[in-house]
Amino acid sequence: MQRVEKAAYVVKNTLDGYREEFDGLVREYANFSYTQGEAYCDFFVDIASMMNGSWLLTAELESDMIANFKSFDWYRILAIDEAHTPEDELITLLQTAYKIGYLWLIERLSLLKQQIEIIEIRLYHNGSLDYQVLN
Fold this sequence. Notes:
Blueprint: H1 2-35, E1 40-45, H2 47-51, E2 57-59, H3 74-77, H4 87-115, E3 120-125, E4 131-132
Parallel strand pairs: 1-3
Antiparallel strand pairs: 1-2, 3-4
Helix pairs in contact: 1-4
């Protein structure tokens, strides 16, 4: 249990350290979408990748002038040795990283949606027809 708590702390701190860069990229993509005449600025999260230890977020409209979102490899960051980690512990660690990462993403995009008034920000789940509600 201590390893899971430590993993939660590491994931949260890693993402919080990325907050300023993340917020800046969301603002750039929102502005880019707006200048392209779009009504929405859509972001896509690959749930399967997030559940398997990766962080994968993309914008619908890509631009060569705007950087991609940073990728996080939770296996490496959390020093998970898959060959020597019991399966139940591995699943718990990855679920922890996924839950914290997904909630962090919702929180950031919800806050930015309130701040960015020129265009509506939406989060789409890859593999689904549903958008996440951003308050």
